[in-house]
Amino acid sequence: MTSRGAYAKGIAKRDEILSVALDVVATHGYRRASVREIADAVGLSQAGLLHYFDSKDELFTAVLRKRDEVDAALIVDDPLAGLLRIVSHNAEVPGLVQLYAQLSVAAADPSHRAHEFFTERYKRLRTSLTAALSAAQLDGSLRSNFDPASTATSLIAATDGLQTQFLLDPSVDMAGELRTLLDDLRSPDA
């Protein structure tokens, strides 16, 4: 087998691991999703799985990256409507919400494997939400009397806070609360 074939197989196996891990974490939650269970599900030993990822933290950071790729499909044309779709979907996958919450706190430590992921993720989200809010102000669908960059940061904080509340009390309607926030930004003429 050529090294190119081995490389392609390695990429395919890594992607399979991430897809399975995404399902396992979504179903069982961060704390109950074990490396052994994920390895068994893809036909590898734990050592074989860790050939593709240096640690459990690296694996779970990659799972969050994969989740973001999947979620990107929910943000087709309208980033604000897409954000609502993602938050609504998150209520169906509490294990991934738990993983995100756990790793985001741990990643505050600059030496944590997920630190760069979260730093870049928040930067990317602030940039895209700021652009979406600005565009909606320009087209008149949102009021013009708020700062898009500051509001983008606040929306991200609200979303993360709603996820924490949801984890503590699953009756919290994350999407409904976020929709209320976005509705408060709407132009009365829209």
> Helix count, per DSSP?
9
Helix content: over 70%
β-strand amount: under 5%
Rounded mean pLDDT is 88
Report the structural category.
mainly alpha
Distance between the ends:
61 Å
Low-confidence stretches: none
- Global outline: elongated
Number of strands: 0
The helix-strand sequence is HHHHHHHHH
Descriptive account of the structure:
Residues 11-71 form the HTH tetR-type domain. Keywords: DNA-binding, Repressor, Transcription, Transcription regulation. GO terms for molecular function: DNA binding. The protein is mostly helical. It has a domain at 56-185. The protein is built from 9 helices and no strands. It has helices at 3-28, 35-41, 46-52, 56-72, 79-90, 94-106, 115-138, 148-168, 174-185. The termini are far apart. The mean pLDDT is 88.
Element layout with pairings:
Elements: H1 3-28, H2 35-41, H3 46-52, H4 56-72, H5 79-90, H6 94-106, H7 115-138, H8 148-168, H9 174-185
List its salient traits.
DNA binding, single chain, Transcriptional regulator, 190 residues, 9 helices, HTH_TetR, elongated, mainly alpha, repressor, 73% helix, transcription
Short summary of the structure?
It comes from Microbacterium faecale. This protein has 190 residues and is mostly helical. Helix content is 73%, strand content 0%.
